[in-house]
Records
---
Amino acid sequence: MDSKEISTERNLYLGLVALSLAIFLVANDFTAFSPALPAMEREFHSDITTTQWVINGYALVFGVLIISGGRLADMYGRRRVFFVGTLLFVLFSLLGGLAVNMEMLLISRALMGVGGAMMWPSILGMTYSLMTEKRAGLAGGLVITVCGIANSVGPLLGGALADYASWRWIFFINLPISAIALYVCWKVIPDDSPEACDERIDYGGIAFLSMALFALLLAFDLVVDIGFKSPLVLGFIASFFVLICFFVAVEKRVGQQALIPPDVAGNKQFVFAGIATLLISALFFAGLFFIPQFLTNMHGASAIKAGMGLIPMMLSFSIFGFLAGKFYDVLGAKKIVSAATLLMTLGMYILSHIHKDTHYITLIPGLVVLGAGIGLFNSTITTVAITVVDASRASLAGAIIFMFQIAGGAVGLGLNTTIVAMATDMPSGIDYAFTVNAYLAMFAFIICVLFIEDKRSLDQF
C-alpha cells in the first residue's frame, strides 16, 4: 500500500470517527435531558407541563425541519450545511446552559432543533459518501449502532451530570464534542457543494405545518389550567384544523416542490406506513419522559438513578433495532411491524398498572417489551417507507417518516402530559396516559395487519 492509499484510508477512518461523534451528539440530545427535568423544575419553579417543552420543543422543531435540512444539503452541499448546522447547535447549547429562566431555556432548546435538523441529513449523506457502494451496509450499520449507543448512554450521562455537576453541563458538553467533529470534518471530508440545483424549499408548507403543530401542543398545555371548554383552548384547536387545511392547499399548489410531494403523498403504502408511525410515535417519548419523573417524584431517585431506570428500554430498543434488519429479509415487513405493534401494546399495558408504591423492578418487563417493539418497528417501517417509493425519493421518504416519528411524538407527549397533569396524582395520570398509548398501538397493529404489504408481494403486481 503506497503513501497515497494510506492517507486515503486514514482520512476515511478519521472522517467516520468525526461523523460518529456528530451522530452521537444529535442522538444523545434526544434522551440525555429526561432524567434532569425534575432538577430544572426545581430551579426554575416550573411544572411538568412546562418542562416537557425541553424535550417537545427540540423534537418538534427538529422533526418539522428535517426535510428542509435535507433539501438545503442537496442545494448547498452536505459539508457546508453540516458546518452551519453544527455552529447553530453549539451557539444555542451555550445559551441553553447559561439560561437564567425557563423561557430562555426553552427558546434555546427549540433553536438547537434548527441546528440538529441541518446536521442530521448532512451527517447521513457524508457517512454514505465516504463509503463505497459495496460498503453502504456498513455505513448504515455504523449509524444505527452509534444511535443506539447514544440513546442508551444519554439518560446515564444526563443523570450523572445533573447529580454531580449541573444539568447545565448537558448543554456545555456539546461544545468540545462539536469542536472535534467540526475540525476533523473540515480537514478530511472534501467540499461537495453542487454547481447548480433545481430543488426549492417549501417555506409555506413548513410554516403552516409548524404553526398547526404548535397550536395543538399549546392547546394541550393550556387545557390543564383552563379546561377543554375554554374559548382559548377551542380557538387553538380550531386554528390547528384551519392551518392544516392551509398546509394541504399550499402543498397542492407547489406540486413537486411540496414538503411531501404528490407522488409520495399519493402512495397508499407510504400513507399507511405514515399513519401507523403517527399512532405509535408517542410511546417512546412517553416512556422517556414519565419513567424518570415517576422514579424521581415518587421514589426520590437521583437524576442518575432515574436515568439508569431507562436502561432496560434503551438496550432492548438498540438490540432489536439492529436485529430488525436481519429479520426483514427472512420474515418480511408485515410480520415484523405487526409483531412490533403488539409488543408495544403489551409493553404499555404492563406499564400502565403503575401506582405510587410500584417498585422499579416490576417496571422492567414492560420497559424491555416496549423497547423491543419500538426497535423493531422504527427500523422496519423506515425500510417500508423507503422501498415503496421511487428510488429517487428514497432519502426524502426516510426523512418524512422520521418527521412523523419526531413531530408525532411531540404531539403525543403533549397529549400524555395533559392527561397526567389533569389526574389526581402522578401515578394515576401515568396509568391513564399509558392506557391510551396501548390503544393507539393496537390501532397501529390493525393498520399494519390490514394495509402494510411486503415488498416482495408488491413486486408481483
Note: Confidence is low (pLDDT under 50) at residues 1-6.
---
Amino acid sequence: MLLGKKRKLGRQIEEMSVGEKLTLTEKIEDKDILLYLGLTNDANPLFIQHDFASQTTFKKPVVPTIMLTGIVASAISKYLPGPGSYIKSQSLSFPLPVYHYSVVHFLFEVKEIDIKANEAVIEVIGKNEEEKEVVQGVLTVCPPKQIDTMNGRALENF
C-alpha cells in the first residue's frame, strides 16, 4: 500500500538531458490480458477467442493496443522522468500486431527539453522478438516540480 509512505519524485526538467535513454522489456502474459479485459469490460473476440482470431488476417489473438499504451505511460510514471510526471500529449502508432506471450523491447529517448515550459519530448520505439517495430510514438511529458511546503511542512501522504 502506498498510502502513508513517502515516494521520491522523479527527476525534474533540469536533471534531464537530450539523448538520455531508457530500455524496458515486457512479456505479455494471459493474466495481463485478462486483467485488462476485466477492468474495461472489453469483449472484443480478437483479443481472446482463438477460433475467431484464426479466421482474421491476424490468425491468432492480439494484445489490445491500449495495453501497450499503458506500458508506455507506466514507464514515464515509473522511470523517465518518474513519479510525479504528467503526460501532456501522446501520439502512438502500432504498425504490427503484438500477440499473446510476445516479448516487446521498448526504447525511450529524450529528444527535446524545454526548461521554461517544463516539458520534455520523449520518443518511444517498441520492437518484437524479430526486431520488427510494433510501437512507435512521441510523448510530451511534464516532469515533476518540487512541491512547495505548506506552513513549513511537506505533504505527508505522498
Note: Helices lie at 30-40, 45-48, 50-54, 65-78.
